[in-house]
């Protein structure tokens, strides 16, 4: 990286010398010798990177690794007693240095050359590898302001690779209202109805073979990218666990969207919050999981008031973003009837998670109690399975049994403790 910093510092110096028509040993930026260590190709995972693309990447990185290099742009235009407009840039709330914009990149690479300026703009389109590989993008241009006035923002994912040499996993914060969910269970630990298991295997097949179907079979002409599934059924029946294990089985991160941070009473804010999640998730190997989705994807209402119209606009926006999202989306709800029919028509699969039968409950009890100290009699398992509970409720019963026994020298589970825990759980229903 140090070699690249030295190289980039030289690039900026030459660009300024050319602009102010100062004496310079180089007639073009391309004459400056590139580092030959292959560092940028490695961290960006790109085989061919142009000279100009390297400049843009380094420009976006500088505020994070060597901000003083950009102080060169603070030179004042004496004619107007202000900074040079063509340099672009902006100042942050706490950062005292120069923060580059698209205009900064254009100035360094193209100067006053209009044709080269147009070429640089192409770097900030959604089909360029800066965007598809989530390296950097332009953000924050105000409404009606020039496109290139947006901040040249490096992604946290790429920055983590550069600074920490490891993959970045975003987590819940005010700017990213989603949390990565994991489990220590595995696929074989799930106890599911045969129909549910069959439909989940269909999703697995799509995740593993969807690219082949779309590209090699030529079906991308008629099929939209991505896969959308609705999980519905009573609480505790395995909807969240199934989504989590789908991710685990296919080496995909699963992010549960926090709806409380998404929905806003202010017009336009809900759409902005959702856009933030979808934009970050695009081109990532993620599963987006919307739990209690009816709070956000519920039925549209008659437009009697401005609030009704606003709510319906939100639903329409969500519908479009979900339909256009190229990855895996799972919506979960307790009641399918609460989901707008317009969404239902766009799901590739709709899976009902029923309450487990007595036979399935017995299997759930066996799997959950297999490591209980001293083991558990089959008679107790059969007794427990006779009480109609969801898988989530069964975990609550087991927790209560453990708490009852934790201070006892004998950790053997007995009928009295188990029955007492079962009765307390039933009172909650």
Short overview:
This protein has 429 residues and is of the alpha/beta class.
Give a structural overview.
- 29% of the residues are buried.
- The chain is 44% helix and 10% strand.
- Strand 1 and strand 2 form a beta hairpin.
- Helix 4 packs across helix 5 and helix 16 crosses helix 17.
- The chain folds into three domains: 162 residues, no CATH class; 175 residues, Rossmann fold (3-Layer(aba) Sandwich); 71 residues, Orthogonal Bundle (Helicase, Ruva Protein, domain 3).
- The longest helix is centred in the middle third of the chain and has 23 residues.
- It contains 17 helices and ten strands.
- The model has no long low-confidence stretch (mean pLDDT 87).
- A six-stranded mixed beta sheet has the order 5-7-8-9-6-10, with helices on one face. A two-stranded antiparallel sheet has the order 1-2. Strands 3-4 form a two-stranded antiparallel sheet.
- The chain has 429 residues and is of the alpha/beta class.
């Amino acid at each position: 990286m140090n070699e690249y910093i030295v190289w980039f510092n030289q690039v900026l110096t030459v660009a300024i010398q050319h602009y102010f028509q100062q004496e310079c040993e180089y007639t073009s930026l391309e004459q400056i010798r590139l580092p030959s260590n292959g560092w940028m190709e490695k961290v960006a995972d790109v085989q061919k990177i142009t000279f100009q693309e390297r400049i843009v990447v380094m420009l976006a990185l500088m505020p994070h690794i060597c901000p003083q290099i950009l102080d060169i742009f603070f030179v004042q235009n004496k004619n107007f007693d202000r900074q040079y407009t063509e340099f672009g840039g902006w100042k942050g709330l706490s950062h005292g240095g120069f923060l580059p914009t698209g205009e900064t990149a254009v100035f360094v690479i193209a100067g006053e050359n209009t044709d080269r300026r147009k070429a640089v703009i192409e770097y900030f389109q959604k089909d360029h590898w800066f965007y598809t590989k989530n390296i950097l993008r332009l953000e924050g241009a105000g409404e009606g302001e020039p496109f290139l006035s947006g901040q040249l923002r490096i992604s946290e994912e790429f920055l983590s690779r550069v600074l920490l040499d490891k993959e970045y996993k975003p987590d819940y914060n005010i700017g990213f209202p989603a949390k990565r969910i994991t489990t220590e269970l595995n696929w074989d630990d799930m106890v599911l109805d045969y129909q549910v298991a069959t439909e989940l295997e269909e999703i697995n097949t799509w995740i593993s073979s969807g690219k082949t179907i779309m590209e090699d079979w030529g079906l991308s002409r008629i099929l939209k990218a991505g896969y959308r599934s609705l999980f519905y059924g009573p609480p505790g029946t395995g909807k969240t666990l199934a989504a989590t294990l789908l991710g685990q089985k296919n080496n995909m991160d699963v992010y549960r969207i926090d709806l409380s941070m998404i929905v806003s009473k202010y017009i336009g804010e809900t759409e902005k919050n959702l856009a933030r999640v979808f934009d970050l998730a695009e081109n990532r190997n993620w599963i987006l999981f919307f739990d209690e989705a009816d709070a956000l994807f519920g039925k549209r209402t008659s437009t009697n008031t401005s609030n009704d119209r606003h709510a319906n606009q939100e639903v329409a926006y969500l519908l479009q973003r979900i339909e256009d999202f190229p990855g895996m989306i799972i919506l979960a709800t307790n009641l399918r009837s609460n989901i707008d029919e317009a969404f239902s028509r766009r799901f590739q699969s709709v899976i009902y998670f029923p309450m487990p039968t007595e036979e399935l409950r017995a299997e759930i009890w066996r799997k959950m109690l297999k490591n209980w100290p001293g083991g558990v009699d089959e008679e107790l398992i059969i007794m427990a399975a006779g009480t109609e509970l969801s898988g989530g409720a069964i975990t609550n019963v087991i927790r209560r049994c453990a708490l009852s026994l934790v201070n006892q020298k004998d950790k053997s589970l007995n009928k009295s403790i188990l029955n007492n825990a079962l009765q307390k759980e039933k009172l909650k229903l």
